[in-house]
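All the exercises in this workshop are built on plain-text protein records. A learned vocabulary of local backbone shapes supplies the integers on the structure line. Once this layout is familiar, the rest of the handout is easier to follow. An example says more than a description, so a record of this kind follows:
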Amino acid sequence: MVRKFNIRIPLREGIALSADLVLPEELPAPVVVVRTPYGKAGERQSQRGTVMANGGYACMHVDVRGRGDSDGSFQPYRNDGPDGAEVIAWAAAQEWCTGDVATLGGSYGGRIQWLTALERPPALRAMVALVTPSDPFVEWPTGLPTPMHINWFRATDGRMPQYVDDVDWMEVYQHRPLLTMDEAAGFAAPLWREELRHRTLDEWWEPVRYQHRIGEIDLPVLHISGWYDDEQIGTPANFAAMVAAGRSGQRLLMGPWGHAVNTMRKLGEVDFGPDALIDMDSSTLAFLDEHVKGIKPDPAPAPVRIFVMGANEWRDEQAWPPASAPSTVFYLSSGGRANSRYGDGRLVPAAVTDEQPADEWTHDPDRPVPFITDQSSAQIGGPDDYHGVEGRGDVLVFTSDPLTEPLEAIGPVKVVAHVATSAADTDVTAKLLDVHPGGFAQRLCDGMARLRYRDGFGAVRPVTPGEVYEVEIRMWDTCVRLPAGHRLRVEIASSAFPKFDVNLGTGGDMITETEGVVATNRLWHTPSRPSRLIVN
């Protein structure tokens, strides 16, 4: 194979992007384009180029505009759709290319593939999209980016990757107001401040959105993520949307992984077994061979391949969620004292038939409920143990009886909650957990709703103190088999810090305020107001 470095790709406006290229022995060949803001050069990129070249593909790693050796100014996502289309056209026109191009990349490099596909470049044949971020406000349904996003802005400050471990990020995340969090971290991030100013889904966000237009794209896509990927929600959602639009060649692969997919079999204290890691290179090349080179596999693979945690086994399915996965509903129930794991909160399989008293808890903005995570935004949370957090009185805990037989929870998860607050705004968080016989409370998935956005992110709706609202809390997806003896648990609270910013409860300007109010919040679970957990 042949390697070429710092190739200049001319774009509109007189700028050029920088690319490193690996060519296979036999030419011309299809090309796989990988674009990144994290540096096109490195051991991982070199290894990927080798794998692709050995598989008969040219591989081109490209620094996105304004990063690394590429010209221009870095404005996350805003130029990457048109830039991607021009890079694909340039590659397809080279003598070493057959005219067929595929794209591959994860995280930032996953989302920009979708933005590029919306430009409909004629030479694009297929995409391999890993751990793909969603549209604005999907992953952070607060109207604001997660406070931990400031860590990413520091990592991508300037043109080259920055060292970020010399900052006490947990202290930075506590800084108020949010608008000057960059200053508290020791640098200036104008784009952070600009994002904070757009707290509804206005036109400013349109150039970075793709999911509302995903039906316009007609390409085979290999969708890859993990159940503990902190941007997981976009991958199964994108797969389902493409299937619903009738797009052929869709493939979903979900493993027991975090954001760095297929790199370790153990997350935190949970070991997912020897089958947790797979030959991802072979899966990727087989997909590209089918949809770029036209080599049909025999037998044809199933459209969906998922790892069932707990059982620690892979399953092939025809759809997501699988048709065989039962819809499961549990109801929240208590005598009005569900506070902490010492309370009387129960998760029951039948609808509540009596007029139970509401559960009440206090939300103090100066003492938020912690979300267990490391400091870096590279991985936010995992299968962590919330046993200690559940000792707090501002966390409602609803637990099932020990299971008498195994229970599978496979598919999208949500909680429907009937809530009221004494404040002018509040958050309602929900978390699903697998409680092991020894007490280990393993987080499976979670989500939250901010009352001012209860009708969507097109506009802010005022909150009337004392009025009861029905809210739907999307908790993303999970795929787990709980053995007999385990219990299912739901936590309800009003903060999950630092994953989400703390609601100050004033109903005012979230980015400039520094002082909050203590809120008294209530949750109803009665026949007319059935708060409940729904899986699939």
About this structure: The chain has two domains: 2-136+218-317, 328-535. Residues 280-293 form the longest helix (14 residues). The domain at 328-535 is CATH 2.60.120.260 (Jelly Rolls).
